[in-house]
Structure formats: C-alpha cells, structure tokens
C-alpha cells in the first residue's frame, strides 16, 4: 500500500469513528450531532470537494468529483446529514479500493520495470568508477559483479556466467555466456564476474527501448477505452440535467414536496457516477498488458491488445519463426574445384554477411578469413552476393542470381536451401543447407487453432520443395515460396482482403527483414526481439524469445481481457439504469444509491483483476 493510500485509509477510519459516534451517542443536542457529521464529512471528503472546485475553474465541470460534491452538499441542505456523510465515506472507500487495484495491477509489470539499471562500473584510468549508465561511452569496458543488473548492451571480453533473463523473456531458465558472447542490458548476472565491452549507448540499449515501450503503452488507447471516455463526456452532463429536471418539474406538477424530489434527484446523481466504467475498463487493459509482459510478450498499446482478440489470419515468416534458423551445411557438390576450395570461395564472398545461411557456410569452412583478399562485395536483395575473391569474380546465391548473370548451372534436387556458386562466370557447384522446424512451432499451430484462428499462412523466400515440406509437417493452411521482400507485401495485401470486417491479420516475423510487412498488417509481431532494435521499433507486439506459441498465449490473454471488458460494461450499465429508475420513482434511497455505485465499482474492479490470473502454459 502506498503512502498516499495509507493516509486516505486513516482519514476513512477517523471519519467512520465520528459517524458512528454521531449515531451511537444520540444526544439531545442536535448541534453536537450535526458537528460530528460535518467533521466526519470534511475529514473524508475535503479533497473531493477541492478537486470539484478546481476542475470547475478549469472548465471541467461534469466529472465524478462534481457529482459527489453536489449530491452530498445538497443532502446537507435538505437536512439529510447521515446520508451526506455516508455517500462521501463509501465513495472514498471505493476510491481506496480502486487505488489498491491499480497498484496491484502495476505490480504485474514491476519485474519488467525493475530492469532499469541504477549504475555501471566502468574502467577509467585503471580504476573502477561507479557512474550513471547514460554516461558510459561505446567501447568502454564495464564490470558486472554477481547479483548486479547488466546496465548496457555489450560483448563479454572476459569471464563466464549464467544470466537471469526472466524480466526480458518471461523464462526462468538462465542463459550461459562466455567470452565473445553478446549480453543485453536488463539481465541479471547470477554467478561469475564479467568484463563487457559496451556496444550501444544507454539510450539505444535494449533496456532503454523496452522501458520506453512499456511506459508509453497506455498512450495508445483501445476502441473500448475511447468509447468509455466519450460516453462519460456526454453521459455526466445529461444525468445532471435530468437530476435538475427531476428535482424541480414534478413538484410543480404535483402536490409532492420539493424536499422529496430533491432527495430523489440527489440519489439519482449518486448512482449515476460512471466510476465503474471509467476505472475498470482502462484497468482491464492495463492488467492484460501486464499479464502479457509476464510471459515475455510486450504489447505497445491497449489498441493492439484489443485487436489481437479478433485474430482471424496468422501469417508467419519461416526462417527463425517456424524453423530454428540454425542452418547446417549438409552437402557440397563442387565442379572443377575441390569441396574445400568451393567452401573457401563461398565463405570469403559471404564474409560480411550475418545472414544465418552465410554464418553456416563460414562455420562449415572453419578457418580464418583474410579480409584483404575480398574486394567489391555487393549484395543483391533476395538473390545473393557478388564479390571479388583473389581477383576472381564469385557469385553466391539462388537460381535467380544464376539466371540474371546467364550462368549455365545444374539445378539441385536436394531438399534444403541450395546455394549456387559461379566463379568467373563459370558454374562451380552448389552447397545444400538445411534448417529444422522448431518443436514450439507445432505447439503454436495447435494453440492458434484452439484460439479460433481461421487461417495460418507461411511466407518465405525459400524454395518450393522446402516450403511444401514445412507446410505439410506443421499442417498449415497455405504457403507462398520463393518470395522477395516486395512479394511478401503483395501477398499480405491479398490476404488482408480475405478476412472479415472485424477480423484481424497478424504477421509474425523476426522484425528485421520484414519491416514493410509488419507495418502493413493489422498487427505486426516481431519474434526473437531480445536485443533486436528493428524488432522493437517496427512491431506492434514484441515477443522477447523465439517461441511462436507465446503469440497464442497473448491471443488467449487478449480474448480474456475483452470478455471481462464486455462483462463490466454490461454489468455496470444494467445496474445503473435499474437503480437510476428506482431512484427517480422514489423506491431506491440515497443509501441504496451509494451502495449500488460503490458496489458496482468494486465488483467491476475485482473482475478486471482476474486477467492477471491468466497464466502461462
């Protein structure tokens, strides 16, 4: 409980004691009783009255503070002192409960927000200096002791340890790192002492980008939240006007006393307070975003969480999303060269590429590359690379590259990704590389089906045979193979036309090569976003690990969130309309009105917090 909440609780207790004394003493002196009632009211409700007056001066007249103030002061004027105090007291109890609920919901992302590093131990002038992470430069060496947070992204230059990545990934399994491995800010060093060379400034580091993402999530409101905001904007003035009419029109038309109708109008005002909706709906979405963050899924706004519940089509990239993205050279077919020479020329040509295929070729070669022997490297998007290696022109790529340069190549029928190589315009052979389907991909497809996803489609630049095999293995609905980046955009545009008006298309990829498609789809999901700047920047949702099934879990959370939002809207509006009618005809008293208002708010808030109980599989 926060300090502010504790102070409010103390005020509520004192006010309740004074109210109880006023009832229990029943002294003959009415003035003493009235003083107790007024003191009780001032102690518990002075802040509400001040807020109402402050908002009136700012032009914000019709809000819950105004409704509570006018209702309670009106009750004092007609001599209903106990009701006036009770209305304010129970309203404040409801507000306290709301504050507690919001605080509890915020704690759902506390572990994530706790990744912000407080300091960095940096080597300067042969000494270790503790400085603010924002004051550390790229290239400097920092020391991370056991139990400390890693303050900046970098590469381990000395030491080995196990890192706790729970706050970033939602996974409890520690990650082993040693010299040469990349480490990311926000992780916790569990064991050994690490020396790390900083590769990014704090503002560009993983932890900084994630914190910025989470802190700004609430600024992107869902349609439901915008509806409630507009609803409250028009609803509150209307009920005030109706209450005024209810207070003065009936007495003029009937023999009933003004006091009776003013009492009914004040009860009408109390129950009309839209707190249950204004608090519980945003709280539901905040809780949903918090529940998602717990499993390592960062949602950039409640609008994306709401849209996710209507997912009809899931479009997946293949490499790194459905497959492990760990390529291994399975076969080398050299023509006119030895297998080792073909691997050497190919490795040299691919030297500057970090693509998984290039890395697998260099790994198979297994020797150091003399960069001085490589000149004029040029990458042809979606086709391959051209480089001068030892004064020879080396072409490394797919069939499209061979066709473009009129190379008379021999097509391979091997299952896998086939790389063709030409040296000085002469076909020199091919290298077959294969990937492996992730175990988690099978689980993801199964759970997408369980979440009523109508169509699962795979887009890839890989060969037809490989794509067909992966589609059959995973039981996908459709695939499109041998696509260039611009082709993927066209396919997604076409698939967008196949969904219903309210349905959503979700694209899930690595967030690096698929930025145009991420932007085009209704919801762009970048997977494996741990440390990927492009993923965090381009996507609407970022999955911090390489598990596609987490998207299925996020869909489950979004559906639960929307179910609870709808329950709260229907419940709150139904109860309020019923009690408003009963207040208008004099059946519901002000006591009933205050319990209806606070009770509805409390029930709606408890219902909203159920989202935090949606647990990871």
What do you see in this structure?
It is a single chain. The chain has 617 residues and is α+β, with helices and mostly antiparallel strands. It has 4 domains: 3-108 and 219-285 and 560-613, no CATH class; 120-151 and 153-199, Distorted Sandwich (Calcium-transporting ATPase, cytoplasmic transduction domain A); 297-323 and 437-544, 3-Layer(aba) Sandwich (Rossmann fold); 328-434, Calcium-transporting ATPase, cytoplasmic domain N (3-Layer(aba) Sandwich). Helices cover 50% and strands 18% of the residues. It is built from 21 helices and 22 strands. The strands form 4 sheets. It has a 7-stranded mixed sheet with strand order 10-22-21-20-11-18-19, sandwiched between helices. The protein has a 6-stranded antiparallel sheet with strand order 2-1-3-9-4-7, with no helix packed on it. A hairpin with a 2-residue loop joins strand 14 and strand 15. It is elongated. The two termini are 30 Å apart. The model has no long low-confidence stretch (mean pLDDT 83).
């Amino acid at each position: 409980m926060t300090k502010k909440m504790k102070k409010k609780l103390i005020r509520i207790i004192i006010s309740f004691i004074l109210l109880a004394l006023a009832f229990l003493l029943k002294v003959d002196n009415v003035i003493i009783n009235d003083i107790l009632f007024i003191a009780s009211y001032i102690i518990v409700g002075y802040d509400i009255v001040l807020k109402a007056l402050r908002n009136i001066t700012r032009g914000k007249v019709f809000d819950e503070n105004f409704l509570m103030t006018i209702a309670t002061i009106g009750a004092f004027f007609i001599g209903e002192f106990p009701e006036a105090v009770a209305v304010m007291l129970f309203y404040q109890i409801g507000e306290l409960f709301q504050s507690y609920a919001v605080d509890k919901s915020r704690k759902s992302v506390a572990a994530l927000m706790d990744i912000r590093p407080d300091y960095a131990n940096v080597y300067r002038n042969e000494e270790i200096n503790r400085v603010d992470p924002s004051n550390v430069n790229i290239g400097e060496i920092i020391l991370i002791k056991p139990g400390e947070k890693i303050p900046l992204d970098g590469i381990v230059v000395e030491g080995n340890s196990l890192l706790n990545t729970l706050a970033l990934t939602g996974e409890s399994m520690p990650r082993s790192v040693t010299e040469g491995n990349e480490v990311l800010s926000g992780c916790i060093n569990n064991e050994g002492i690490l020396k790390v060379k900083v590769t990014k400034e704090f503002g560009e580091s993983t932890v900084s980008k994630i914190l910025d993402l989470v802190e700004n999530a609430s600024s992107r409101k869902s349609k439901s939240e915008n509806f409630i905001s507009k609803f409250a904007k028009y609803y509150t003035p209307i009920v005030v006007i109706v209450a005024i009419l209810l207070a003065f029109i009936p007495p003029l038309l009937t023999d009933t006393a003004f006091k009776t109708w003013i009492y009914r109008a004040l009860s009408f005002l109390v129950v009309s307070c839209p707190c249950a909706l204004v608090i519980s709906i945003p709280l539901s979405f905040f809780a949903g975003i918090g529940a998602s963050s717990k499993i390592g899924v960062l949602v950039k706004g409640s609008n994306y969480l709401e849209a996710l519940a209507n997912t009809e089509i899931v479009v997946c990239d293949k490499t790194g999303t459905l497959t492990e993205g760990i390529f291994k050279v399975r076969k080398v077919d050299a023509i006119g060269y030895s297998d080792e020479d073909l691997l050497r020329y190919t490795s040299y040509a691919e030297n500057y590429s970090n693509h998984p295929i290039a890395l697998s070729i260099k790994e198979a070669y297994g020797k150091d590359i003399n960069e001085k022997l490589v000149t004029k490297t040029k990458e042809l998007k979606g086709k391959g690379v051209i480089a001068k290696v030892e004064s020879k022109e080396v072409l490394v790529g797919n069939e499209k590259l061979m066709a473009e340069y009129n190379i008379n190549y021999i097509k391979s029928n091997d299952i896998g990704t086939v790389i063709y190589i030409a040296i000085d315009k002469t076909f020199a052979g091919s290298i077959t590389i294969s990937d492996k389907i992730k175990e988690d991909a099978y689980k993801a497809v199964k759970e997408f089906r369980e979440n009523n996803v109508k169509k699962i489609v795979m887009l890839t630049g890989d060969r037809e045979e490989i794509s067909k095999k992966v589609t059959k293995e995973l039981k996908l609905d459709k695939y499109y193979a041998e696509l260039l980046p611009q082709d993927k955009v066209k396919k997604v545009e076409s698939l967008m036309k196949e969904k219903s008006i309210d349905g959503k298309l979700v694209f899930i990829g690595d967030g690096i090569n698929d930025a145009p498609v991420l932007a085009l789809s209704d919801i762009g999901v970048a997977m494996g976003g741990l440390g990927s700047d492009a993923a965090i920047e381009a996507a609407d949702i970022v999955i911090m690990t390489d598990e596609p099934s987490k998207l299925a879990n996020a869909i489950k959370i979004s559906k639960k969130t929307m179910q609870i939002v709808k329950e709260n809207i229907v419940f709150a509006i139904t109860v309020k309309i019923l009690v408003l009618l009963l207040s208008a005809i004099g059946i519901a008293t002000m006591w009933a009105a205050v319990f209806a208002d606070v009770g509805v708010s409390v029930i709606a808030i408890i219902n909203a917090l159920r989202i935090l109980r949606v647990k990871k599989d």
